[in-house]
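Example (one chain per record):
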Amino acid sequence: MTNVSVNLYTYNYRQAKTYLIAVLFVLGNIVLPQMFHLVPKGGITWLPIYFFTLVGAFKYGWRVGLLTAIASPIVNSVLFGMPMPSALPAILIKSVLLAIGAGWAASRYHKVSVPLLFLVVAFYQVVGGIAEWTMTGSLMSALQDVRIGMPGIVLQIVGGYAFIRYALNK
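Predicted structure:
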């Protein structure tokens, strides 16, 4: 898994493609969490709400990522009660950081690699964790994604690489 050139796109908010692609990634961020919630503690272990935000922002730019990052947790919370409304602020902050970080990394390096995705995921987890700690006053809550969600972090990095590299390579 080395640095691999892939076609990366950046759409603006005036293009219909931006919204169409974002809707597809939001749907992915609805279906994937529902599948993982069939397993006890699947959501907090696998962190599926972030997967298509990472992929969308990296492949199609920060605007698609930002739309996906904001809509996915809200739609999931309204439709299914997960994430719980009390968890939404921290998840939204992390999702937005992920979208911005992935979009920036893709536009800066024009390649996808496991180390680059690792840095993007580390960025949103560290900065988002600090924000969550500040908001909640609980270091344990802020570290939950890392303590319990390590399988999800690995899924984002390795699965995100595979998805961008193979499923979306055109």
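Caption: The radius of gyration is 15 Å.
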